[in-house]
């Protein structure tokens, strides 16, 4: 790590001691010294505090490389290594893009201090990092999205030569906020963000993105209480129309929505639900569209089918589907959901051993991904489980974690 000459220069220019700066941001003079000598990195919280104190952005204080250099590297296929999203070099670049956007020095809700095309590049790149984070730590991703979203939305709503690009990025940002709000168990916010995503998607002139935003609304009607299956079916049909009969993962997701929605409507709609399950499988394209924002993968195909089978009163088939979902490359939040729903289904077939194993595994992941939504689900399942099962010491220990 190189010495941070810029930070030292800004401090000395003002005649401030390291102890003074430390007091102002709530840390130690020793740590300030280590930052300036390049012995320690500066965390996000302290970066923001220093930017506020010095009235400088992250680049001006030496926390990140110059914008032009970063943009050049972000456009370099070799450094990004798109085939390996966990590539160390690429991850560092993405994190720097996020730092730029969150530093407060580049943009506020009403002003940006760099050219719009550069801001678009940074925003689009930062969203890739958010997509990674939201699958692993929803709380951190939620905080980042709350910083970058207002500016993007404001710019997307203003007529300009960049409006379609900005509307596209704003839509994707809002769809990520939909996911983040769900895992914070903030269902009112989820629905609000989803409506905003649909509004921005219509300005993007991208029919697949419009279809994706509508698809998310379909799931919103099924996830957010009260469940509204009729509304979910209506919006899924609208999404299929926007999809223009193309074979995409979005089309597959639309049928998955309708399968689950019809399963809520009772036995009279069982065959309709099963038909849409089949259509979801048939229309699955096994491609990445809309930067994964269709959120439809081999994992979700099995998981969504399982949800429909649970509502149709067939827990054994639901467990089979959930087991298949776990064999796919599921994200931690996805794995957590499947494990907990297997535990729930195990209660219905009176399989104590399966319940115990999957429930404990699910709670371990709840702690890792910081999802209030999954935690609430785990509590509901515990409340539905036979009381004598919960006397088990290991289960008691797991349940205690839900109330910490």
Automatic annotation (TrEMBL):
Question: Which InterPro entries has this protein been placed in?
Answer: Cro/C1-type_HTH, Lambda_DNA-bd_dom_sf, TPR-like_helical_dom_sf
GO molecular function (one): DNA binding
CDD domains, per database record? HTH_XRE
Transmembrane residues, as ranges? none
HTH cro/C1-type domain span: 7-61
SMART domains given in the database record: HTH_XRE
Please indicate which superkingdom the organism of origin belongs to.
Answer: Bacteria
Coiled-coil stretches are: none
A Pfam family annotated for this chain is HTH_3
Q: Which PROSITE patterns match?
A: HTH_CROC1
By what name is this protein known?
Helix-turn-helix protein
Lineage of the source organism?
Bacteria, Bacillati, Chloroflexota, Ktedonobacteria, Ktedonobacterales
